[in-house]
Write a structure and sequence with these properties.
The protein is an all-alpha fold. It has one domain. It contains 15 helices and 2 strands. The chain has a two-stranded antiparallel sheet with strand order 1-2. Strand 1 and strand 2 form a beta hairpin. Helix 1 crosses helix 13 and helix 5 packs antiparallel against helix 6. The N terminus and C terminus are likely disordered.
């Protein structure tokens, strides 16, 4: 089924890079930017809030699922490719410093901002979570999926009762999103493609629309902070929505909705080369860089002219789309390439030494 400019019958480029996952990653980062763009507009617009909830229920779990899928090459034959973990650490430290300076000098947060490398600034929690997961994988990759996946869900449901697991080192989000990462790690692409038939894709669209409608008509019963996954049950709307012993049910509902929406989305992503495929390898730079604009948007009230109208929502969405394409351009990639090539040999173990060990 040809969606969004899918015209090629080839599924990989000359380097063996899979068009399908580049397409998925770009579409997901596009949704991330759109969700942030419309976030300030959702307060008094029920439809916008419902769309925001649906996007946020799906986009990060699906990105994390794909991150887990590509983590398969991190450990091969008992050899750990530490360079990948170190690159994430370098990205995190550089982004943490840059965002902190931006908040301090540009946004004027000098009196209120936390000054700690252990409290990820803004959306850098995703990088911190990747660091956590790649550090844990050497201890977990041999565990059978039928054990580790249910166990990760149980732990995630229980951590919601812990009032101390919040933004410190992104522990809450690391635990709450780990099921998507570990599912992706054990996932095989062929499993999904068996279902990629036109009737199933039509059904996926219908299911996605149905979940959106259910969200709209039950919006007052949905705890937004369960979706963002960085709050405990008591520091959310659950304290008035649900009795304490069954608060975890909301987490399970979130997992079910997120998994269903992710599956529907992945069924619809084009497999061949599309006009946006080449940007799929640059999603991390968009993820980090767009946050500067989002923070400035909130601080300086750039969104205010777009409030209260459908036209304003449409305009903000178009701006978000334009920003995504601009930040995915090659010039913005150079700082990240430079950071990824920093020499940190003293922290890396040679694969041959690991085998000998």
């Amino acid at each position: 089924m040809n969606f969004l400019g899918y015209t090629s019958k080839e599924y990989q480029d000359e380097n063996g890079r899979d068009h399908y996952f580049d397409n998925a990653k770009f579409l997901l980062i596009l949704l991330v930017v759109i969700a942030h763009a419309i976030s300030p507009l959702k307060t008094d617009m029920k439809k916008v809030r419902a769309i925001w909830m649906i996007i946020n229920t799906m986009h990060m779990p699906c990105l994390i699922f794909i991150s887990g899928y590509f983590a398969k090459g991190y450990i091969k034959n008992g050899v750990i490719k530490t360079r990948r973990l170190i690159t994430y650490v370098v990205y995190y430290l550089a982004a943490q410093l840059t965002v902190s300076l931006f908040e301090y000098y540009v946004l004027g947060y000098s009196e209120t901002m936390e000054r700690s490398v252990f409290a990820p600034r803004s959306s850098l929690w995703y990088l911190m979570c990747l660091i956590w997961w790649f550090m844990l994988m050497p201890f977990l990759y041999k565990l059978k999926p039928q054990f580790i996946i249910p166990a990760s869900i149980v732990v995630a449901c229980l951590i919601g009762y812990d009032t101390k697991a919040s933004d410190f080192l992104s522990v809450a989000r690391m635990v709450n999103h780990f099921p998507f990462f570990i599912i992706g790690y054990h996932f095989k692409k062929d499993w999904l493609f068996k279902f990629r038939k036109v009737p199933v894709q039509i059904a996926a669209i219908a299911v996605g629309c149905s979940i959106t409608i259910l969200c709209y008509y039950n919006i007052s019963d949905i705890a937004e902070r369960i979706i963002t996954s960085n709050y405990n049950y008591y520091n959310s709307e659950l304290s008035v929505l649900t009795d304490e012993p069954v608060m975890f049910v909301h987490r399970l509902i979130f997992y079910l909705a997120a998994a269903t929406l992710c599956f529907c989305f992945l069924l619809l992503v084009p497999r061949g080369k599309a006009f946006f495929t080449r940007f799929g390898s640059r999603t991390l730079q968009v993820y980090i860089l767009h946050r500067f604009l989002y923070l400035a948007d909130l601080e300086f009230g750039w969104y205010e002219p777009f409030l209260h109208t459908r036209k304003g929502v449409a305009e903000m969405t178009l701006i978000a789309i334009a920003i995504t394409f601009i930040l995915a351009l090659k010039p913005f990639e150079y700082p990240f390439k430079w950071l990824s090539k920093l020499s940190l040999r003293r922290f890396e173990r040679d694969p041959e030494e690991q085998v000998k060990a």
